Q: What sequence folds into this?
């Protein structure tokens, strides 16, 4: 168990290295540099100035040296200055914006898991009833509609027409409602679909029939046999769900003008803010890696048949 | 042709049933699948919507009343009316025409990207699965690394490196999308190459190329087709998402996602600007998932939902 944990944590290192290297290569393989970004509001600089700045930021050094420097600094959690917001370091920006994204993501995740499992279980228990059709309907909508489309339609319906919720911002809990639902709905749909089919499998299994046959009460069969076993496979899809909520956040933050990390990431791309891009991608990598590890550990804890060695 | 064949076989089934015989007309996978597909109402509905958008896409230049980039500032910000069915943009462009041309972009990306994905993913997966060994090992390690990257993140990265534009979208989706198909094809080939009919083909001296093309590929095709069908809406989504955050298609070329992103700021005063493209994206995605689900059930009835 401990060995497995350590092994997995060690495996995270080459994965992150590969991610950093791929990102680095893609960024540098194409024309343009952070000093002459193609962003619409960029300052055109004279070649002299560019040369001086390149020297200052170490952009004139050979690429392998730059990559090495980056890695060394990243080990000390120093990702350098942001090229687009010259006075702020990448770490500062991330420290300011990541908590917002994390809060939004966590709420969306909770909403998706609680809502998805509830809907899926109810649908499976009442197969072919209206609640089952509702589940299938929500699942289809949620899986097929992109979150920014859902976001636009929600804005139009709930904040502009009905005026139930504010349209933009992140100040009060009332602001959190629509973004959370928008970001979580697609994942809720996937979880509901998965839960439904997993529970349906279990309901038809022999040991559930045995449990009923020996006269166990409905609730006991449900809690002890069906739910416990039916929810285990659901845990396996939590990893991809984290990833989807992470990237989905870019779009939802844009729709509702939320001051999270996603917006900075998107602008850093077009202005070739190398430091910011590398910082954000690595942060995502670490975050996803750890989340996947937690999911796997959880899975093993829930299902004793899983061995870690 | 297929529909004629299926109509004929339904008729003959009816006749033989009337005669009290449980005989079935000779059939094959495709006729069978077609019959299962047209019995699925949602799938048929999806197919109709998809065909409708395809029709708009192909004949956009005939159907659209105005060129998509024609600006007419005198008519800017008009609500939907008799002349401009879906209103006009802040530049006075006819939104109806832009929506129709938007269908062209979406369909082009959806279908075009999957063609690229198919021609990269299937050959690589076939080689890895058939020959195995070192090639397989290295290829799959690479595929694993690609999997560790959230796809959308990688696509955004490539797009911002390459710049906006349709060709670059093809490249970005092609570079990321082949991984799934490659893995799938490899898995199929791995299990199929151990089957008796392959051993038999090898025993009679069929060359590898023939075994791959004539024996393995046709048998591996069904799951690949299903995956490709689901890949189409995925590609459409990716283009819309990229254009929404401004790294996909640039104006004046009309892309639904780009329109949603650009006109979102006008939602309060001119709701129709962002809403209609958003609905168009939603409808297309829904239609493709209905069709995809139907195709999967039709082609592979044993597969569990």
A:
């Amino acid at each position: 168990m401990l060995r497995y944990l350590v092994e997995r944590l060690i495996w995270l290192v080459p994965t992150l290295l590969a991610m950093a290297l791929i990102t680095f290569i893609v960024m540098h393989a194409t024309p343009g540099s952070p000093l002459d970004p193609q962003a619409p509001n960029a300052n055109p600089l004279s070649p002299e100035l560019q040369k001086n700045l390149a020297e200052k930021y170490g952009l004139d050094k050979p690429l392998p040296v730059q990559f090495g420097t980056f890695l060394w600094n990243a080990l000390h959690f120093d990702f350098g200055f942001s090229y687009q917001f010259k006075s702020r370091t990448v770490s500062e920006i991330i420290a300011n914006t990541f908590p917002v994204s994390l809060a939004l993501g966590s709420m969306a995740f909770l909403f998706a898991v609680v809502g998805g499992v509830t809907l899926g279980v109810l649908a499976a228990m009442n197969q072919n009833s209206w609640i089952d059709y509702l589940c299938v309907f929500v699942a289809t909508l949620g899986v097929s509609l992109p979150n920014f489309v859902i976001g636009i339609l929600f804005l139009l319906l709930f904040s502009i027409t009905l005026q139930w919720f504010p349209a933009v911002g992140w100040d009060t809990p009332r602001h959190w409602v629509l973004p959370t639902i928008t970001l979580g709905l697609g994942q809720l749909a996937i979880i509901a679909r998965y839960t439904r089919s997993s529970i349906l499998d279990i309901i038809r299994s022999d040991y559930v029939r045995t449990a009923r046959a020996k006269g166990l009460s409905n609730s006991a069969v449900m809690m002890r046999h069906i739910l416990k076993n039916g929810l285990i496979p659901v845990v396996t899809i939590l990893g991809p769900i984290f990833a989807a909520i992470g990237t989905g956040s870019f779009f939802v933050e844009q729709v509702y003008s939320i001051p999270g990390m996603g917006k900075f990431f998107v602008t850093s791309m077009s202005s070739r803010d190398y430091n910011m891009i590398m910082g954000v991608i690595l942060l995502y990598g670490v975050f996803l890696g750890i989340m996947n590890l937690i999911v796997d550990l959880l899975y093993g804890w829930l299902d004793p048949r899983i061995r870690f060695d | 042709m297929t529909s004629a064949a299926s109509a004929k076989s339904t008729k003959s089934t009816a006749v033989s049933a009337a005669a009290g015989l449980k005989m079935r007309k000779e059939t094959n996978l495709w006729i069978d699948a077609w019959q299962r597909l047209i019995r699925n109402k949602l799938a048929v509905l999806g197919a109709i919507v998809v065909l409708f958008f395809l029709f708009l896409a192909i004949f956009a230049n005939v159907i659209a009343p105005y060129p998509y980039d024609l600006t007419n500032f005198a008519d800017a910000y008009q609500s939907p009316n008799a002349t401009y069915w879906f209103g006009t943009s802040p530049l006075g462009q006819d939104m109806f025409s832009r929506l129709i041309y938007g269908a062209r972009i979406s369909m082009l990306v959806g279908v075009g990207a999957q063609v690229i994905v198919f021609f990269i993913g299937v050959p690589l997966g076939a080689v890895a699965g058939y020959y195995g060994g070192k090639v397989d090992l290295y290829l799959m390690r690479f595929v694993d690394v690609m999997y560790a990257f959230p796809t959308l993140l990688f696509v955004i990265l490539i797009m911002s490196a390459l710049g906006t534009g349709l060709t670059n979208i093809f490249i970005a989706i092609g570079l990321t999308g082949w991984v799934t198909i490659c893995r799938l094809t490899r898995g199929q080939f791995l299990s199929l190459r151990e089957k008796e009919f392959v051993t038999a083909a090898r025993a009679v001296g069929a060359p590898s190329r023939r075994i791959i093309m004539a024996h393995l590929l046709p048998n591996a095709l069904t799951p690949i087709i299903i995956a490709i069908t689901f890949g189409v809406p995925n590609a459409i989504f990716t283009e819309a998402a990229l254009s929404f955050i401004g790294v996909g298609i640039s104006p004046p070329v009309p892309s639904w996602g780009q329109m949603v992103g650009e006109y979102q700021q006008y939602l309060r005063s001119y709701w129709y600007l962002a809403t209609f493209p958003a609905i168009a994206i939603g409808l297309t995605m829904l239609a493709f998932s209905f069709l995809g689900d139907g195709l999967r059930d039709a082609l592979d009835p044993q597969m569990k939902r």
The two ends of chain B are 30 Å apart (CA to CA). The first helix of chain B runs from residue 2 to 18.
